[in-house]
Amino acid sequence: MDFTQIFEAFYTLYRGEDEIPDSSDPEYVIARRLANEAVNRWSNYDGTYWKELFTTNLAEDSDGDQTIEADTTTYDAPSDMREAGGFVKIKNSSGQTVSTFPIIEPSDAQFKDDMGRYCYFTGDPNNGFVLNLNPAPDATMAGQSIDYVYYKKPTLFTRGSDVTEMADPYFIVHRILAQRFRVSRNYSAYQTAFRDAEDALKIMQMDNNSGNWADPFKLPDNSGTIFGSE
Question: Is the pLDDT at 213 greater than 90, yes or no?
């Protein structure tokens, strides 16, 4: 659902009218602000890592540096990056991985050998990240692609055609509805809408954390041993 569709669903529940205000109406502007508050609530809910917010540097909408330059060690990360981890992969024109850099914490770089192969990100989600590669890529790597999985910030609504990554946008609908009832001091209606929103949020979290019928959630065993064996 894009924001215009979310607004239509909200306004129908809120006013019960078939005429929907256009984007210049104050109700539309207020609802968009409240929709972004709902997105923020979702993205930070209970320490959940939402599957919809994982992407890669070579994704079509990424604005991070994607090409290796000889003797260059620093590259801008995507502006929507929130966290990264695992490996940075260097890929050839066929999309095959030709080199891999493990990602370490910036504080650990001082303890690494200058000739070691590793990388780290400096910066923060508010001002942006920079990828640091070690050692500097040589001429044979020039022109190859930089790719890595990262956890991104959610898309906020700035216009009616913007679409959320959220699995159930009706959480946003009910969250906006609850906030509007709260402001108007209709506390009975507020509690109902708030409960509907929180129920939608909890169901999304359950679905997110439980896998699916073909790939049910399993707690990984990283111990290297079999439970109950000696």
Answer: no
